[in-house]
């Protein structure tokens, strides 16, 4: 099924407004509240698990088996629920209170622990705790100068022998971009190796959206 047509204009306007005044994280909550229940205004609000993630666990032998998983910037909760369906004990967090409210309303019987938290100031108890960490599309919504710290924080959640999967848009190192989302660059992802993670596989591919989008699925593992 073709995903519903998204209107990125509101997201882009709010992001530009907040970034211009040095508040790069403030627009997410404004977007959720301004969108109300109109998910066409939330570019990532597909109300279904990410097609770039579904299928990956099966291909890579990732099993839940009551192990712990963390989702970064969980948005409306579909990927967190998918992880819970795989048998993970899932924590999913977001900086936007309205997103967390939305998850709890959509999935009232969920086993997922939805938490309000800021990636740049996370609870200390999450350090090195998660067997699987999923980041999809949040990094690409941060201005480039926040990426190094964001990646370091994300790496810090991965337990010994744990896995991290980063999914996003991709461009070449140094390639320019203008409009949000701002794709990841290989050199940004490579910084994860400086945080004790080993690169297991990096897939650089064109998805089957219309028009097609260049994406990356980058899989890292922390050695014991
Ligand atoms: C581009 S959306 C992606 C949402 C979700 N991962 C998905 O793919 O549907 C980014 C999400 O990250 C959240 N977010 C932004 N900055 C954050 C931060 N510093 N800490 C936690 N969540 C954040 C936003 O509120 C938003 O829900």
Per-chain topology:
Layout: H1 9-20, H2 27-35, H3 56-60, E1 68-72, H4 78-85, E2 89-94, H5 97-106, E3 113-116, E4 130-136, H6 147-156, E5 158-169, H7 186-190, E6 197-206, E7 214-222
Parallel strand pairs: 1-2, 1-4, 2-3, 4-5
Antiparallel strand pairs: 5-7, 6-7
Helix pairs in contact: 1-2
How many β-strands, per DSSP?
A: 7
Order of strands across the biggest sheet?
Answer: 3-2-1-4-5-7-6
Small molecules (ligands, ions, cofactors) in the structure: S-adenosylmethionine
Written as H for each helix and E for each strand, in order along the chain, the element string is HHHEHEHEEHEHEE
CATH class: Alpha Beta
Could you walk me through the main structural features you see in this protein, from its secondary elements to its overall organization?
This protein has 224 residues and is an alpha/beta fold. The chain has a single domain (50-222), classed as Vaccinia Virus protein VP39 (Rossmann fold), CATH 3.40.50. Helix content is 26%, strand content 24%. The chain contains 7 helices and 7 strands, in the order H-H-H-E-H-E-H-E-E-H-E-H-E-E. The chain has helices at 9-20, 27-35, 56-60, 78-85, 97-106, 147-156, 186-190; strands at residues 68-72, 89-94, 113-116, 130-136, 158-169, 197-206, 214-222. A 7-stranded mixed sheet has the order 3-2-1-4-5-7-6. Strand 1, helix 4 and strand 2 form a beta-alpha-beta unit. Helix 1 (9-20) runs antiparallel to helix 2 (27-35). It is globular. S-adenosylmethionine is lined by residues 25, 28, 44, 50, 73-75, 93-96, 99, 118-120, 136-138, 141.
């Amino acid at each position: 099924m073709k995903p519903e047509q998204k209107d990125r204009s509101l997201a882009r306007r709010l992001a530009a407004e907040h970034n211009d005044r040095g508040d790069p994280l403030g627009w997410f909550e404004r977007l959720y509240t301004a969108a109300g229940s109109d998910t066409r205004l939330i570019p990532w609000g597909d109300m279904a698990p990410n097609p770039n993630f579904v299928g990956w666990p099966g291909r890579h032998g990732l099993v839940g088996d009551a192990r712990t998983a963390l989702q970064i910037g969980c948005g409306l909760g579909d990927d967190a629920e998918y992880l819970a369906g795989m048998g993970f004990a899932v924590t999913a967090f977001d900086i936007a209170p309205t997103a967390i409210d939305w998850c709890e309303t959509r999935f009232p019987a969920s086993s997922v622990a939805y938490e309000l938290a800021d990636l740049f100031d996370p609870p200390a108890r999450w350090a090195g705790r998660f067997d699987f960490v999923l980041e999809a599309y949040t990094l690409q919504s941060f201005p480039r100068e926040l990426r190094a710290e964001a990646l370091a924080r994300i790496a810090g959640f991965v337990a010994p022998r744990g896995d991290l999967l980063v999914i996003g848009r991709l461009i070449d190192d140094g390639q320019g971009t203008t409009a949000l989302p701002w794709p990841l660059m290989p050199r940004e992802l490579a910084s994860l190796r400086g945080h004790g993670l080993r690169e297991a596989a990096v897939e650089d591919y064109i998805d089957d959206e219309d028009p097609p989008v260049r994406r990356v699925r980058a899989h890292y593992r922390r050695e014991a």
